[in-house]
Amino acid sequence: MRTLLSPFSPPSFRRGWGRLFFLLFIFHSSLSVSAQTAEQNLTRAMALLDATMQHSFRGSDLQMYDTYNTSTHKGDGTADVWPYTSALEATCSVLEALDALRADYPALYDEHHDRYVTLLRSLFDNLAYYQGAYRVNSYAHRGRWEIYGVHRASVKGHAIVAGIENVYDDQMWICRELTRAYRLTGDADYLAEATMLADYCLDGWDCCLDPNGNEYGGISWGPGYNSKHSCSNGPIIQPLAWLHELYLSPDETADYTYCYIAPDSSRLSTQRLRSEVYLEFARKVYAWQKTKLLNRSTGVYYDMLGADNTIRYVTAPDGLRYRTHVDTGSPGGTAYTYNTGTMLAGTAELYRLTDEADYLTDLKKLLTSSYNQFGRWKRIDGVRYRQWPTDEKATSGFNCWFNDVLMRACVDAWAYDPEGAAKILDSFQENLDYAWEHFLTSDGFLPIDLLGGWGDNPVTKGFHQLAFAAEYAMLSVWQQRVLTSGISSPTAETPFPDGAAPAYTLAGQRLTTPAAHGGILIAQGRKYLVR
Predict the structure, then answer these.
(1) Which CATH number is 160's domain given?
(2) What's the domain count of the chain?
(3) Residue 487 pLDDT more than 60?
């Protein structure tokens, strides 16, 4: 198995070749990208994050309001763990942008980096108000877990988490951000918690065997549900890919207890390498969701496979009760941007790790389908904008954050389809800037309808504002990747040289058949866009 260096590896990896390849991203976007734009995006991201922490959180324990009224300047209610997780995301995204722009803006980095590292740690410490412990009988394992419930408790570690009080997608979002947090800070506490959450989510994989001896597959929405959702499968792929890389080493030992079901229904286990299991499951989850939930007519993903929510158990040969498979019917539900976004991010990671052409094909199709299915043109004062799904009011939906997931996936996909990703990223830049210039409130907040404004409803959610902060930060990261090459895009006039060797991907992966790979490649000291 190859060891691949990611541009966002922990500090110990951000040297030598890993740092070199980070500096080799190229593509001249259709948007006029400049160092000033990247820096402005970062400062706006920090302003939105700071305003949200000031107005949508209270107390040293960082209790998050559910809503905030920009007219009365008051917060109300208590947010669930999912919106709270978006604060981790926005902070990680700002830190990632500060790292990316450090060489060009060292003063900006020196002024802000440490305070966001401190904020990240405080958010993590107070995440424990959503944490609790319970025992669960899964398909092949019975055990006790300390995971995160939907609702906040008044005491750390005492949240109600049994049954429907916890869902796997919440654990996946947290796992993703804590893996990022480790990469950005090197704090081992983040990695330990992310690893535990990844293991908990994989414990929910339906490993029961069908009549042909194959696993049914898929992860239900939670241990108290049997419906299987895009949002309880797709989000784990990217953090599994990252964890695979973090654990992969020559001296890795087999310390993952892999549980499975034998043909005679016995529940068995064996010790395996974490890096091996995490990549295997990233591929398995991706394949399952593509097979079961991709809408072939639209090219984007359904929301879920529905069910009557009956939970069934069987007694195994060892005399213990385990969860068993329940059919989940046909796919359906609204096609949300985030469900396609998680698969786009997943296929970008899997292509980077495996160099398998099918993942690149999927990536390009998802970019095209996302642009066509989710985006709509809107003309304002003679100027056309590409508008993404929004809600009637802030309390009636989550499209702001759903769109954020799609946008950040485009940042991941950009290296492999620059034009397809840039079209979407440019539109997000234009929409955010329009809202900033026309609708920013005195509290420092943006409306959920970036092109339409506030209307007659002054209520927002910190959840939405943190999504905007994360978007601005990741646009800054993307634009800095464009700029760091110092050269313009490859063109058809500079074809990839026949027989060029060695050739590398942007992640530092040496290729045996580079011309068949696609994306941006490096050979003979030059960069090429291979289609």
Answers:
(1) 1.50.10.20
(2) 1
(3) no
